[in-house]
Structure formats: C-alpha cells, structure tokens
Amino acid sequence: MTSILVVGGGFAGVSAAVVAADEIRSHKADAAVTLVSETDQMTIRPRLYEKNPETLRAPIRPALDAAGVAFVEGAVAAIDTGTRSVTLKDGRSLSYDRLILATGSELPPLPVPGVADHTFNIDSYDGAVAFDRQLQAVAKDPGAPGHDTYVIVGGGMTGIELAAEMRNRIAQHGGDDAAAAAKVILVEMADVIGPEFGDNPRPVIDTALAEAGVEQRLGCRVTGFDAAGVTLEGGDRIDAATVVVTVGLRANGLTAQIPGERDDLGRLAVGDDLKVAGLADVYATGDVARARVDDAGNYALMSCQHARTMGKYAGLNVVRDLLGEAPRPYRQPDYTTCLDLGNSGAVFTTGWERDVQKTGAEAKERKTMINTQWIYPPTGSADEVFAALRIDERGR
C-alpha cells in the first residue's frame, strides 16, 4: 500500500489529509494517509488576539477519523528525503512514498536585546495563554510601575486587531475603569499603519484605532526591551509592564531539511502542483510554500485563507501524482481581507488593491462568521467532512 504522510495538523495539513483521503476513496486507490502532529488540537491562530485564548483550539481527530486518516501524535525531529523517512523526537520513524510538509509558520525572536525575556506574543496557543495570564497579573497589581501601559510592537494585521481589542482584554481582568485609564501604544517601524494594506482601508483603520484610544508611534524602531519597558531608536523610552511583539513571521524551521530553493521567509519554492522544485515526492503547502495564486505575479500570504485552500490542492495533487494523472494547478485569484477593529466593527476588502466593500457592523458580522465557523475543522460523517473540504466551483 502506498503511504502519504502529512506533517502538520494546522489549516493546510488537515485540508491536505482529508482531500487526499477523499481522492483515494473516489478512485478506490491502494493508498493510505497519515497525519503527524505534536497535538490533536488545531490552534485557531487567527483568533488569538481575542479573549479567553484557552478556548481557541479545536480537535482535529473527528475530521481525520471520519476521513479514514491515521493520526500519529509526535514532534518531528528530522526529515530525510533520501530515505523517504521522518524521525520523531521520541525516536520513532515513519516512512512515506509521498510527503506533504504543512508545518506552518512561527515567530522567531526579533534580533533586539531583551526580546526573549521581556515580551509576549500571540503567535501560538502557549504564547497567547501566557499573554492572557500577564493581563491577569497586571490587573492584580495596579500599583506596579508601568502597569497601565500596554505596548504592541508591529502595526500589521495582528498588531492592529490586538490593539483595537486591547481595552476589552484589559476590562475582562481589571474592570472598565482600568481599561479606560490604560495607555495602549502601537509601535510601527513604517511611516503608516498597516503598510501592507495600502491606502484604501487605512482611513477606516485609523479611525477605529482612534476610537479605541490607541496611540500610534509611527516610523519608530525598537532597539531594546527590558523589565521596565521599551527603548526606541534615538533613546526615547516607553515605560510599560506589558509588551507584545507581533512581527517577524517565518516558515517553520523544518523547511531547512528539505533540499530546495527558499525565499527570504524560509518558504520552499513549489510548482503550480505544489510539489517542491527539484523533488519528485515532496510537496509543501500553507505557510511553508511560496506558491503562485494567480497569473498576475501574486503569491500566497502566510494566512489561514491561503493555507486552507492550498492544502486542498496539495492533497488532491499528491494522489493524482500517484495515479499518474495530471495535477490541478493551484490558483486562488479571489483575495479578500477582513480585519477586526474591536468595538468599531471590522473592515472587509477585496482584491490585492484591497478595495473596501464593507465596514462597521456589517463587516464585523462577516468576520465573526470567518472566526467562529468557516475556519474550523469540519465534523460529521465521512461524506460531510469530505464535502466541507472539497475544492469548490470557484477553485477554493
């Protein structure tokens, strides 16, 4: 029996495994799919700026079990493409005929003194829980230096969403008076907030941040972190007990064990079939893959939106490869952005120019649907799980 091994249990990995199993079933192929991951819980990473991070995980076993995908719990230590084997940290070894790498991205430490010891992040489940515990601790010690100042470093999507929601987070643990008195400061190295979003949604974002009482420090570079706060280039200080870093995503480090070209984010170069360039039996998908989404020169971003769909194509194409069938080229030309803006609602844009389509409560309704329903792993019977993750008529 042919073995397909998926490494990674996030959005891309689960999609790849289920779609591969669906394709195997439809062709009655003699193949099996195994997914290996450190945990059988998917972290709903796009929601980690929200309250109650302990609730922001979902089990993946219901989808995998329904699809007939075997699950192995363990952390991968090594990938050997020569012997077609994967070694886990506990010494177990798994062989494969085809490998799909879907280990996502991570937040490496900024090359700034003190970042490891004096900052928090909401990049991972553990990081988000640790940050929430810090909010609780600060609420219990209102007399501590810098207790009422919260610094967020990075004005991209994660930084904006956290900043807009921060007073609600503070109020949850410290009450409304503490939230109202807090200083929330968003530090961004660029001269504008959300530089990757372009000009179209920026007025909406700026208005929402102003309504949330967020102070923007633009064109500022952080040169040091310490127990008392942040030092900026030029010597300016921000005294704060709570500092969150939201910048610096890179592809998971396992990409370094795959022979092939990588971009400056560590992502593996893949063809339109998502096969790693130069390798016959290894695919990369989600945040570890540098993949074209259209014929206009746009590439997938490190996002749930692209990871889920890219995973589907990887699962489909790995089975087609085994069956000697032509691959279906990965294309995802419809690009949207839905940015949560806290009590001001949200902003929903379409296209790479990010044309604003909806704002306020109407956009918030869409964001809520995305966050609480659309991105979760499916449940139900095999037919229901397969149907939920098949590539639709729009190629998504």
CATH architecture of the largest domain: 3-Layer(bba) Sandwich
The overall pLDDT, averaged over residues, is: 96
Number of strands: 24
CATH class of the largest domain: Alpha Beta
Per the CATH scheme, the topology name of the largest domain is FAD/NAD(P)-binding domain
Structural class by SSE content: alpha/beta
Key phrases:
396 residues; alpha/beta; FAD/NAD(P)-binding domain; 2 domains; 10 helices; 24 strands
How would you describe this structure to a colleague?
- The protein is 31% helix and 24% strand.
- A five-stranded parallel sheet has the order 5-2-1-9-20, covered by helices on one side. Strands 13-12-11-17 form a four-stranded parallel sheet. A three-stranded antiparallel sheet has the order 6-7-8, with no helix packed on it.
- Helix 1 packs parallel to helix 8, helix 2 packs across helix 10 and helix 4 packs across helix 5.
- The longest helix is centred in the last third of the chain and has 20 residues.
- The radius of gyration is 22 Å and the shape is globular.
